[in-house]
Amino acid sequence: VIIRNHNEHQYIGFAIQSVxxxxxNAEIIVIDDHSTDDSLDVVRMFNxxxxxxxxxxxxxxxxxxxxxxxxxxxxxxxxFLSAHCQITKFDLEYVNDKLNNxxxxxxxxxxxxxxxxxxxxxxxxxxxxxxxxxxxxxxEDRPFLHNAFCFYKKQELxxxxxxxxxxxxxxxxxxxxxxxxxxxYLYTPTIEVNHYYTTNGATWKGIG
Length: 208
Fold this sequence. Notes:
The chain is of the alpha/beta class. It has helices at residues 12-22, 39-44, 62-72, 92-98, 154-159, 170-180; strands spanning 2-5, 27-32, 51-56, 77-81, 85-89, 105-113, 116-117, 132-133, 136-137, 142-143, 149-153, 186-196. The protein has six helices and twelve strands.
């Protein structure tokens, strides 16, 4: 499980605890972007509960952080989890089965604004109640994949790493390249997280 962190002290503990609840033997890799809050102290609280590792990288970009996590991971099934997401519904056997046929599998996200479950507007409207192959966003006019809660096989990402030049949306560009390569990815509501509001979040347009 690869978690990117930048001053996520409020929710990263919820993220890690949910991993331990649903994937007790997980290797948890936290990649930090020079946080100035106590989020890494929160992460260290879990050192006696599981296999938790912390890394800080230079010249941080989202893609660089993820690629580093992929190379560092020792398991073949990888989960990218946002530091402000909490797993609520999970089936690893189902995910692994789907990864035999798809390059990535991403799950449902429920937006939580200050404790309230809100309506799925703007980006949240993509997270529907049926499976979709190669989801396309009419809002963004491009393929839609979301790394806040997304599974991959390690070899897939070693062969097709994320761009390290982008400062956001590395998942959408990766999805576009995968489709052009003749491959497919899957969205499924079978797995799910609560996605908590953060003040710096880029996906909270249309709260209500």
